[in-house]
Each structure stands twice: as C-alpha cells, then as structure tokens.
Amino acid sequence: MKFLITGAGGQLGRGWQRSLESHPIDEFIALNRQELDICNSETIRKVFTEYKPDVCINTAAYTHVDKAEKEHDEAYRGNVLGPQLLAEACAQRGIRLVHYSTDYVFSGKLSDREIYNNGYPEEAPTNPVNQYGASKLAGEKVVVSALPSALIARVSWLCGLDGNNFIKSIIHGAKSFGQLKVVNDQFGIPSFVPYIIEQTRFLLHSRNSGLYHLGSKGCITWYDFAKKIIEYAQLNVPIEAVDCSTFPTQAQRPYFSKLSTSKLEATGMSVPSWEIGCKTLVSDLIKA
Length: 288
Ligand SMILES: NC(=O)c1ccc[n+]([C@@H]2O[C@H](COP(=O)([O-])OP(=O)(O)OC[C@H]3O[C@@H](n4cnc5c(N)ncnc54)[C@H](OP(=O)(O)O)[C@@H]3O)[C@@H](O)[C@H]2O)c1
Description:
Elements (H helix, E strand, L loop, with lengths): L1 E5 L4 H11 L5 E5 L9 H11 L3 E4 L13 H22 L2 E7 L8 H5 L15 H16 L4 E5 L2 E2 L6 H12 L2 E4 L3 E2 L2 E2 H13 L4 E4 L6 E2 H11 L6 E4 L19 H5 L7 H14 L1
Parallel strand pairs: 1-2, 1-3, 3-4, 4-5, 5-10, 6-9, 7-12
Antiparallel strand pairs: 8-11
The structure holds NADP nicotinamide-adenine-dinucleotide phosphate (NAP).
C-alpha cells in the first residue's frame, strides 16, 4: 500500500512515520504542515496527482484545546475545512481516508460513567463541552458526508514518543519540582501511538470503515495515570490528588470520556491494557 501521512510534524504523524519506516513493504510519503497544508485545495490536488496514494492518513489537526475557545476560525479551518477538502479529494480519486477524532466529542457528564460503564460506544449521543470538541465533531460529519467509506478513528489521552503529552509532563514535573498535584475527578483512558497505529492498520487491512473507537482497556483518572508513570519511571516523588478546579482552564473538559473498544475487538483485534502501553512508553522515553 502507498500511504500519504498528513500532519507529519505532530505526535501521531511522527509515530506513523516511524512505523512505516520499520515496514519497508509499504511505500509512504509523510508531509508536515509546511509541505501540505490540508486547508489548501491546490496543494492537496498537486500532492495527490503526483504521489497517487492508496490511502491518506490524516493526523493533521488543530489541537490547542484551550486556545480553541477564542480561536474558533483557526480550529474550524484545521478540524473541519481541512478534513473536508481531503475527504473530497479522496472521494474524487478513489483514495481511502483515515481521519482521527477525539473523545472530546462527548459531553462527559459524570452520570454517563454509570450509563456507559464500559465506555462510550461509537453510537452514543455526542455533545461536546468545548470548542475543540465541537470542531472535531463537525469534522467527522463533513468527512462522512464527502466520503462515506472513510475510516474515522476516535482516540483519547494520546501519548507517544514524539511531541508533548501527559507522560512527558509528569516525568518532567517530577524531576523539576520533586512533588506533583494531579487531577483525580476526570475519568478516561490513555491511548498509545504504536497501538493506535497497529489498530488502524488492522482495520485498513481487514477493509473495515466507518466510525471506530481505538485505544486501551481500563478506566482511570489522570491521578491514577500519574501514579503509574512515576512507578514505572522509578521516580520517588509524592503525588497529591486534587479536583480539576485546582487548575482552572479556558476550556471545560469532560469528567468522563472513556471510549469503549468493543466494536474494534469484535473485528478480531486485541486491545492492550493501559498499563502495558504506559510501561512500554515510559521505558522507551527513558531510553530515548
Ligand atoms: N493528543 C491527544 O491527546 C489527542 C486526544 C484525542 C484525539 N486526538 C486527535 O489525534 C490526532 C493527532 O493528534 P496529535 O496529538 O498528533 O496532535 P499534534 O501533535 O498537535 O499534531 C497535529 C499536527 O497537525 C498539524 N497541522 C495543524 N493544522 C494543519 C494544517 N492546516 N495542515 C497540515 N497540518 C496541520 C500541526 O502543525 P502545527 O504544530 O504547525 O500546528 C501538528 O504538527 C488529531 O486528530 C487529534 O485531534 C489527540
């Protein structure tokens, strides 16, 4: 298969690049924002015409959750216009499209934790509580409308070797400050770049399309996550559990955003526990 990766400067885009470099059977081109702005239809046309990919993996997105509260236009350009242009270009040329979305499409009310104790299934009603989530939800809708056969993969609390993420922040915070305060009233599940790529590849190879939740097994708070990171990194620092009101943010976050992976598992794909993903990534980050 010939892959085109968009957003190649980002956490997931760089992970895809690493993965494809280690699978020499697949051809690929990975383009960062300067090389392919997904909001520029002319550049998309040029790249698609010259490279002729079989599949386009769209990891490009506007991901500044707090800034999105004020930067509506930028968020909608990156998360709605760009995906729409890509989906239209893929539809015209018979190219398969993978588009990533987020757990933030859900309202994340704590009462939903009782209703969806295995996590939100794909068909659960959406109702984002912030502008980032609203723009990503609108992006899902334009992609499906332009290309009903697109694979839309929602992920949550994403962590990988590249870019910024929670694991890196906790390790850095522990080393710099010798103690941590971490939010213990928001529940969800971390997902790890290598597993997200493996799950995406499985769905592509088994020719599944439509909406899927990818990720890991379990349901934890950021505090639970931080405790494990500190344990695996062998950093002996105290961690205090606090409410999210201790760290006010521009954008509201869901209190519960665990994604159920039952639909993915029903395809035959196994899903790792979050502890396995965490342990592997912490060890890789320490070695890096
Ligand atoms: N990170 C998470 O915890 C998380 C959670 C749930 C879902 N997701 C979703 O997972 C996907 C990958 O996220 P990530 O963590 O890899 O994000 P990321 O590290 O912020 O990477 C996104 C990349 O897209 C680029 N980009 C933005 N606008 C673009 C445009 N118009 N054209 C081309 N490239 C553009 C960004 O470039 P600049 O840096 O120059 O803006 C950045 O390199 C996204 O769809 C995101 O919404 C992420």
